[in-house]
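pinging the channel bc i need a second pair of eyes. not urgent but kinda urgent?? the chain im working w is below, pasted from the shared doc
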Amino acid sequence: MRLLHTKDLTVKQFFTDIPRYVILSHTWEQDEVSFQDIQNLDIARSKAGWRKVENACGRARRYHFDWIWIDSCCINKESSAELSEALNSMYQYYEDAAMCYVYLSDVSGEYHPGNEKSNFRGSRWFKRGWTLQELLAPEYVVFLDKNWQRIGTRWSLQDVVSAVTGIPVDVFKGRIIDEYSVAQRMSWAAFRETTRPEDQAYCLLGVFGVSMSPIYGEGGVKAFMRLQQEIIRISDDRSIFAWVAVPPTKELKPWEIDRLARNTETRGLLARSPYEFRMSGDVQASNVELIGNKSSYSFNNNGLHIHLPFNPIPSSSEHFGEPIFLAHLLCQSTRGGSHLTVYLRKTSGHQYVRCYPDEIFLTSSPPPMDDVRELTVTEHLVTGRRVRASNTSRWTSQYEIELLRSAWDFLHLQPQGPISSSGLKISRIDEHTVSLPSELRFVQYLSQKTGDSFRIDCENDRPSLSIGHSWIGGSIPRDTYLEELKSGNYIMITSERRGDFSKKIDVGYLAKDDPEIRLWTGPLRLPDLGVIVHPTLSTHHYDLPLEFQGIFPPDPFARITQDMAYATVFRPHPDDPKECSHPTFRLLTYRWDYSLSHSYIIHVAFGLQRSSVWTDIVVQELFSHETSEWVWKSYLDSGSRAGKRLKGEGFAEAGLMTAEIKRTKNLQLGDYSLHLHTKYYSY
């Protein structure tokens, strides 16, 4: 790999004995500095991206790193061989880095990322395909705002990052990602985009521990099919088949009620893009022990050779020349433990195709192991990606401790007693920064105003915090501690590695009346219910799409795409009587251009009322004075809308339109589906 020297800005190639380095994760913008540009610093400095390189190197130097890896200027993209090596090795590059700097050029650090005023969750970085592995692979990740100021670390912001990405918090606590099913890992990439379609597959190579040659120009679908075939070579996890296609754009006519009569697209068992795994975040790995020595499957020249338990659908042969079966994938959903099945239609002999690819039927019945069929539609190997080896022993206990502005009221205390008589003293670097000698393992601080005190212990690679007689620490690889002081205020210490094997510790102070204190001290509450709606109404002759306008109150767990809207709500909580922090109901707002002369705003309310799931619908003229916020608040008043909420019905009507909320029987995000209808057409 090539590394950029942070002082003289020269690029050097290393094959062995790679030095300690920090790595930059960012989103590409206009006029980035390329490998060719960095050979001539005058040219490099003329590029708009130079400031990013300069600031990244500057931060690395401050933390005593001599080397940094930046993808824009450390890969010679004119060499196809080098590009292929870099794409297949990039996960390892990030995994082996001592620190990963995530630069968010579109984020201000003014607010805590959990604050609804923060633009952290809307950063472009969370929407890009390549940044998924850059979030997962490194051991230590620090987020930097547009001014290169620290926002927080992956550890300290784990709840917020989990809500944004859909990745379980346990991943950020150190759980190995290989323990998650193929479908779950695919779902983490479902809502991410890449500039080149083939990169939707190439950016996942490290996540699944496989290698393949990039072939730009082959197309995104073909590249993603190749990726799945490589995964199948090393895994027998059948959750790789647990995907849901984008629904057909043309819906059933009122007289085509029988869904088996629908002329659907037929598919194989491989998905065409990560987006088709958007509903699969709760799919567990398959239990192949159920099928014994028939668990292996493989590709041959006429398709996928596999054994599957079957359930016939008796009436299906009335509509097609060959019968349709429910084939069990031997996977379960974590929501209710339902078993996943797909529809297969027999074409001839042992040949089958998947039909209704936009559905995965959930059943409470376990697979019928008395009817396991051999049909054509991997060989079991050990995963090729290694578990990260701990390199803690390489880091010394040399610490530099700096009081951030919020903690300037604290004074460090020189050691007393036998330690003091030995001549050991804390070295002062500046007014607010000290350095601990290697023999001295702790430093104490005292507030001049509140009398608060705390002690930072540095007995090993990870610092710990002592307040009074309480010690906070452990073996978990935390880089941030936030603890309450005797006054009720809070102290926060954050450690970050440096290139000379030492550690930098920043100390911050948060007042107990700080409005953002709950965002730092309390875990992010997970929603109790999720609802999905497909925003299209179809007439006999044409489709009328609904233009999504927004969700109120804003939902950090929401997912909005071209074919669906997903939103969540919470159960009532006595500490939140106004339902603002954790709303028990939300409003989805759409614009509906019914004709050239008629446009409407449609507000669809849904939520939890005691044990009931309810919905309501409000249809207004386009220029109505009622905003989404105003409509939402009206359900809290004593009027008719509040009465509908308290009544808690799953069906509502307004004019020609109706809304209905029902529990789903198919794999999707959330447990409920919200359907909109009119008297004359529906979806």
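so Residues 659 and 676 are 5 Å apart (CA to CA). and The chain has four domains: 2-176, 233-376, 392-516, 529-678. — does that match what u expected or am i reading it wrong
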